[in-house]
Design goal:
alpha+beta, six-stranded antiparallel beta sheet, 8 helices, 21% strand, flat
């Protein structure tokens, strides 16, 4: 889907249990052909540049970029319609199953989904979640108290005790 040509034999060797399913997917892509596959995905959306901090998109003012990956960027944003509350907004050119998967998960240590939509003006996909601070998973996992945890229960107790938005945690990690 990213326009790359995977080497089928490599995947079959790495994932023998999925080889038959993978063959079927490749056959379907072969039947569609590159032009039809791109058209069905809305290739014009892939040309849309991702917004920059300072811009407003679909009622969110982008304050600053928090991170980026191959397919999306995450911003600290202000949700204009709800008293400019701070949110984390993930912006991508194409949709995925991530919002539906996250929406089904209910746990205090999993960030909930506030909303998901496609911006009608740009075609960009927007996943809105609460902004919980700047602490990264790497900072938490390398924290001395966390690395000393011996059981899952110890780890959960430490996560409950350590505030993820605590600036001191970021400095110690």
């Amino acid at each position: 889907e990213a326009g790359e040509s995977p080497e089928a034999a490599e995947y079959w060797a790495r994932f023998p249990d999925l080889a038959d399913s993978f063959r079927e997917v490749l056959e379907i892509h072969g039947l569609l052909g590159p032009a039809r596959a791109l058209a069905s995905r809305g290739s014009c959306q892939n040309d849309m540049p991702l917004p920059e901090a300072g811009q407003t998109i679909a009622g969110f003012r982008l304050v600053e970029e928090l991170g980026r990956g191959a397919f999306a960027r995450v911003y600290l944003a202000e949700e204009r319609h709800l008293s400019d509350r701070p949110v984390a907004l993930k912006v991508a050119r194409t949709g995925s199953r991530e919002p539906q998967t996250l929406a089904r998960l209910q746990h205090t240590h999993i960030v909930p989904v506030y909303s998901y939509r496609t911006d009608s003006a740009t075609g960009l996909h927007l996943l809105c979640m609460p902004y919980l601070g700047r602490i990264t998973l790497l900072q938490i996992l390398t924290h001395p108290e966390i690395t000393a945890a011996r059981t899952g229960a110890d780890l959960l107790n430490l996560l409950d005790r350590l505030q993820p938005t605590d600036d001191a945690l970021a400095e110690r990690a």
